[in-house]
Amino acid sequence: MNALDRRLFLKRLGLSTATWPFLVGLPSLGLGAPGRPRQRLVIMFTPNGTIPSAFWPEATGSDFELGEILAPLEPFRNRLLVLHGLCNKVRGDGDNHMRGMSCLLTGIELFPGNIQGGSHTPAGWASGISIDQELRNFLQRHQETRTRFGSLEFGVGVTDRADPWTRMSYAGPNQPVAPISDPYQMYRKLYGQQQDREHLVSILDDVQADLKKVGHLIGAQDRPMLEQHQALVRRMEQELAADRDRPRHAAPPRLDEGVADQNDNVPRLSRMQVDLLVNSFANDMARVATLQYTKSVGQARMRWLDIADSHHTLSHEPDQDQVAQRKLVQINAWFCGELRYLLEQLAATPEPGGEGSLLDHTLVVWTNELGKGNSHTLNDIPFVLVGGGGGLSLGRSLRFEKVPHNRFLLTLAHALGHRLETFGKPALCEGRPLDLTKFSESDLDRADALPIADAVPGVQDECVPLV
After folding, report:
1. Please, are residues 449 and 131 in contact by the beta-carbon 8 Å criterion?
2. 391 closest CA partner among 407, 366, 413, 406
3. Fewest CB within a 10 Å sphere: which of 25, 341, 392, 417?
C-alpha cells in the first residue's frame, strides 16, 4: 500500500490526522511504509533557449498534446511532466547567459569577477553549490546510498574553455565542476583503474606491515598519531575491497574507436556518452549524473541536420525570420531525440537487484539556461521531467505564474529524500518546494494532495535518502 492509499484509507475511516503517524506503524493494520526504492537523478542541459510556440503544450493537466520539439517523447508521454512558468530570478553580476548557466543549478548569485559578457557587468563563478552536487554529497553521507563516484558529469561538445558560460555544476562557492566531454576519458575513469587499485592495495599492505613493526618502538606521545594512520590505512583497504567486491551487473559498453571530440562527431559522441551513463547506473557507480550538450553561447554547427549556421547565432535572429526559426526547431527537436535515446536505454536496462527498469527509478530533467534565445529572457526556463520515482505525479503539463526556479530545485532535493528548507538564495525559496505530487481534481480532493515533504506519513523530519 503506497502513502497515498494509506492516507485515503485512514481518512475514509474518519480518523483524526493526529493519530495517523501512530496508526500507520501498527503491523496488524498492514499500513507500514514499504521499503524505499533506489532513486537516481539525471540533469540534461541544452543551450541557447527554445522556440516557445513549438515547445510548450497549449493545454494543462493530463489532456495535453506535445508540440514539434517535444514530439520525440510521445512514447513516454504518460511519464512526462512539463513545467511552464519557472523563472531564474537570480540577479547580480554577469549577463543573462552567464547567470542562466551558472545560476541554473545553484540558484544563487555569481561572485564579482573579471569575465566580461554581453553588455552587462563582468562576473566570476557561482557563489554556491549546485543541486546535483548537493544531492551527491547527501547520498554519499549514507552507507546505503553511497556509490563509488557519487556523481558523474558528462559533456558532449563542451570545449576546453572554462568560464561561467560553460559550467553548471559547482562543488561549492567558486568551485566549478568540469564535465568530461571525451568518452574515452570517461571510460578510463569508470573502468581503466583496476591495475592502479591492485597496485595501491599492495602498497597499503606494505604500509600496514611497516606500521606494525614500529609499533613497539613508538612512545606514548606518538601512539595516537600511529593509530590514526593505521585507521586510515584500514579504511582505505576496506573501501578498495568494497569496490572490488561490488558486483558488475552490466559489462562496459563497446565504444567506437577513433571518434575525435569535434563538432561533426557530436551525434556519435552523444550516443557514446549516454551508453556510458546508463552503464554506470546499471553498475551503481553513481546515483546522480549531469549530461551537458555544448554550452551557453554554444556555436555548434548541426551539419548532420543540414544546418550550417552556428546555434547561438541562429538563436539571435528575430521571430520574423522564419528560416532561422525553422532551423532552431530542428535543433531543439534533435536534442529531444537524444533525450529519448537516453530514456529508451534506461527503460531497456533492468534495475539491478530490484524490480522494473532503470527508468522506473530514475528522474531525468531536461533544461536550458534561457527561456528564449533572441530575448535572453530568464523567464519560462524549459523544465521537462520524465522517468519514475520521487513521488511525483507524471503525465501532465503544468503552468505556474513566474515561480522562482529555486523552489523547483528544492522539489528535486525532496524527491530524493533530502528535505532542505532552502536552496541557493533563501529569499527565492518562499513557498517551499513545488507541489508536484497532486493528481487531477477528479482523482483526489485537495485535502489529500500533499506536498512532497508530507507525502509519507511519519517521516517528515527524517533526512534519510531513498536507497
Report:
1. no
2. 413
3. 25
This prediction's pTM: 0.80
How far is the C-alpha of 108 from the C-alpha of 183, rounded, in Å? Answer: 31
Give the per-residue pLDDT at 228.
Answer: 72
Pairing of strands 40-45, 286-293: parallel
**How distant is the alpha carbon of residue 364 from its chain centre?**
7
Closest C-alpha among 106, 143, 135, 179 to residue 40: 135
> What contacts 14, CB < 8 A, 6 or more positions away?
none
Residues near 270 by Cβ (< 8 Å), separated by ≥ 6?
156, 293, 338, 341
In angstroms, the CA 51 to CA 269 distance is 25
Q: Where are the alpha helices (DSSP H) in 16-161?
A: 20-23, 52-55, 96-102, 131-140
Dist. CA 425–CA 407, nearest whole Å: 10
Q: Residue 212, Cβ neighbours under 10 Å: how many?
A: 11
Paired sense of beta strands 175-177 and 286-293, if any = unpaired
Q: Which conformational region is residue 426 in: left (phi greater than 0), alpha (psi within -120 to 50 degrees), or beta?
A: alpha
- What length does the chain have? 467
Beta-bridge mates of residue 42: 289, 364
The region that residue 35 occupies, defined by phi over 0 for left and psi between -120 and 50 for alpha, beta otherwise, is beta
- Rounded CA separation 104/109 (Å): 10
Looking at per-residue pLDDT, the higher value among 423 and 233 belongs to 423
Domains and CATH numbers, the chain: 39-182+261-436 (3.40.720.10), 183-259 (no CATH)
Q: What is the pLDDT of residues 58-109, one digit of tens each?
A: 999 999 999 999 999 999 999 999 999 999 999 999 999 999 999 999 999 9
**Cell numbers describing residue 300:** 555548434
Q: Is 312 helix (H, G, I), strand (E, B) or coil?
A: helix
Handedness of CA 399, 403, 407, 409 (dihedral sign): positive
Closest C-alpha to 87, from 383, 366, 413: 383
Burial code of 403-418, b = ≥16 C-beta within 10 A, e = fewer?
bbbbbbbbbbbbbbbb
Apex CA 285: angle with CA 282 and CA 287, to 5°?
85
Q: Show Cβ contacts of residue 161 under 8 Å, excluding neighbours closer than 6 positions.
A: 295
DSSP output for 61-75: BTS----TTTGGGGG
**Residues 103, 93: contact at Cβ < 8 Å?**
no
- Are 122 and 94 in contact, with CB atoms under 8 Å apart? yes
The three-point CA angle 131-408-48 to 5° equals: 80
